[in-house]
Every structure is written in C-alpha cells, then in structure tokens.
Design brief:
By secondary structure, the chain is an alpha/beta fold. It has one domain: Vaccinia Virus protein VP39 (Rossmann fold). The protein is built from eight helices and eleven strands. Helix 5 links the parallel strand 2 and strand 3. GO terms for molecular function: methyltransferase activity. This is Methyltransferase type 12. Keywords: Methyltransferase, Transferase.
Length: 267
Amino acid sequence: MTDPDWLRLNRENWDDRVAVHVGSEFYDLPGFRAGRSALRPFEPDEVGDVTGKRLLHLQCHLGLDTLSWARLGAAVTGLDFSPAAVDAARTLAGEVGLDAARFVVADVHDAREALGEDLFDVVYTGFGALVWLPDVYRWARVVASLLAEGGFLYLAEFHPVSQVLGEDGRSLAYDYFQSAGETWDEPHTYTDGPALTRTKSVQWQHSLGDIVTAITRAGLRLEFLRERGTTLFQANEALVRVGPDDYRFPPGHPSLPMMFSLRASKS
C-alpha cells in the first residue's frame, strides 16, 4: 500500500539530498560554473534552437539542466517542490551570471496555479522525474495546460524496461506493470557523498504505454518516440562503458532499451 504521506516523505528526502548533491562529484558544480553543459548531446539536437523561447523545466532540482538551456538562449523557468533545491538553483544562477532565470517552489501537480497565466514554448522534463509521480495522466494534463499553442513537451527519461532488471543485468527483479507506489528506505542517494538523514521515499513505475497514452489523451500530438540502447551510468553489472556518460550491454549480450526521448506538440 502506498504511504499516504508520500508527498511529505519525498519532499523531505529531496530537501535532504540537496546538500549532498551540491558537494558531489556527480553533479560537478565547479565544472558547470566553468562552462560545462548538463544536457546530454542528443537533447539540444532533438529540441532544436531555443533562442528566445520560453522554456519551463519541471522537477528541476539544482537547476543545472535549466541553466544549460538558458546558456543556449532560452528564457527559462525551473520548478521544483524542494525549497532547498530552488535556493541552490537561484544561487547557482547568480554565480554563473544567469540572473534572469526564474525558479519557483511548487509541486509539479500545482504548476498551473503556481505559474499563473504564463504559457511556454517548451516544457522540458529530464531523467529520473516520472518515478516520483503517482499519476502520469494528471501530470500530462498539467503539461498540456502550460504549453502555448504550437509549443511542445520534450521528455528524456530512463526507459521503464530498464527498471525491471536485477543488479546482474540478466534477471528480472521487478514487475514492469507494477502501478502501486513502493516505499524505499535507503541511506544514500544515487551520487557520491555522505548518508541522508531522511531516508524514506515513495516511487512509482510507469509503463511506456501509459506515458504515451497519457500525453496523447491530454491533447498533445506525438512527433517522435526514440528508444536508446545506452544509459548514463552503470545501472547493472552487465553494462560496460562506451563513452564518458554512455553505458550499454556488451557485444553478444541481448540488447534492451535503456533510455527514451519523445516530443509532443500542442496544436
């Protein structure tokens, strides 16, 4: 049964992660301050030129992806439910001279109310965001309400198929169609750094079918859906490194989709 306090637990957990993530090698804030982009190379290629476009980043965390889009010319707004994360994002924006970037504290489900009448040319959601949402259909309706006519959603995520594998990368450990929230109690976050003090979180598994159906039912038109055989870190023991942030199954091992990206427009 899903913990009824899931939203509080998740917010506290992510508030606690901020101090760890700010100091982690994983997020590499010194490198970002020096000019490193936090975006994956295929993302700007698939989104296209964002110069002068209003871009909203939902669940923006520390704002590295948000500010990377700002460096490419977008007028950015980042939204996150963690006040600590938004404070960190605002500080970082000032440090890198992107003071025009706006960051808002709000749960993603309340984004429409938090942003007033504002509409956006691009709504962007990055890796590891959807597992924190209990209802992707509700999320998709919120996204559609935030888009201007002719605008589009761009979503880049870990493929749900990759989430069912065990640590060995060869066995099935989780149910692909698991829809109930699962409570986790983990002392460490996914980065390097010290242990957390608020260790409980609740996450949901969403099938690719549910994600795409939610988006189209919200009135958005799917332009493309691309599946990739690589991922950003060594998610299981069978993966091998083939690039700075690229891991895949070795030759001779059956290949599975590890990430996907999609673009869906409002017309």
